[in-house]
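Lecture 7 notes: from sequence to structure.

We start with a single chain of 268 residues. Read the sequence below before looking at the structure.
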Amino acid sequence: MAEISVKKNKFTIVFKKKSKEFECAYTLADTAIALKWFKKIKHLKNIPIDNIESGLIDLKGLQKIYSKFCNQYGLGEIKFEDINDQKNLNHLHQIYEENHDKISKMKDNTTLYEFHHAIHYAEGQRPSKKQINIAWGVKEGPLTESFDCYDYYSDSIKENNIYLSWAELGKKPLNYWLDEEPNEQQRVNELCKPHVTLRAKFFIPLENRPIGKFDNSFVEWFKSFKRSWLETYKIDSYTEKHHYSAPLLATADHNIDLNDSEFVKIIL
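Now the structure, written as tokens:
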């Protein structure tokens, strides 16, 4: 369980671990992106977090979730011999994309996002046990805005700090390559997304992380697609930092071990 109180650029998160509460002090980063993020947090203080986007539900069993998705929204279900084959996972992701705009406007759209996260779960992109994820999903509503987040990416990820989560309806270029998506410029430009959406979603790493290095095979593959992709999204570069790091939102004024801690609500 967690509560946040704020005084100027200082705030405290109260975590809960094994029924015991403890406080952790933070300082808001002095950046435009941190200030924009915090304004969103103020509006969401009384709204429960989204369990799907916060990685708090079981996403195993893609076939069952896919069947539920088709039945609930009246879609024809494709029968796959092996639904977890990467080509089939790519096909399912395209089905999600094609139906997102329509279903996202429905009152009961939770299964849409459960389906999306289940696809990525099957691809191995699973919630890390080395970070605490906090998100409000569609409850965030109009607070989502377009913003060039790349300018604020940190050179490293530090334990216990607060960072903005990448939250695009697509894939990072490295993941696109790893998932063996089509080697087509149009599809690269369509599905690969830079971080240009600012949401309230954030994470707290439970360990320090260095910036990883791109596989040389990915670098060579991306060369032929990179220029058009950068021009499409009007961005200057895409480096290891843009894949492995994130924008800093607040620094921890503590060194408490947050493993196995829970975050439930925010109070300002």
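The chain has two domains: 1-54+130-268, 56-126. Keep this in mind for problem set 3.
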